[in-house]
Amino acid sequence: MNKVVLVGRLTKDPELRYTQSNIAAATFTLAVNRNYKNANGGYDADFIPVVVWRGLAEMLSKRLKKGSRVCISGRIQTRSYDGNDGQKRYVTEVLAEDATIIDWDGPQGGSGNAGAGNGFANDMNVPPAGFTSIDDIDDEVPF
Fold it and tell me: What's the whole-model pTM score?
């Protein structure tokens, strides 16, 4: 079983792109605190790349911004690509299938569920047929 749930804050605004077939894909990095203190008494964080597809991607890119706190659930995926220098690069990222905005200051204020409870079906979040990775959006700029 490949299932992950993360709670963290966005390190920058989501980046929304569209495939040539006009399918939305958003990417962002989630800073997730570790649950133990370091030698200085603070908490270290892991920075996890996240990919979201279709309707959920569009909605999250409109409502999230740098510093927004969100809970995402999905699966871990790995992929590789050849960099501009010819070297093979490997990427591990989370493919988000559902999201809950924990602190959001949108038009209605408060927090809200960005998943299926707001009319976004789960199949809106999976990659489109024929696409194996986010690299299929733009082969020249892998992210």
Answer: 0.73
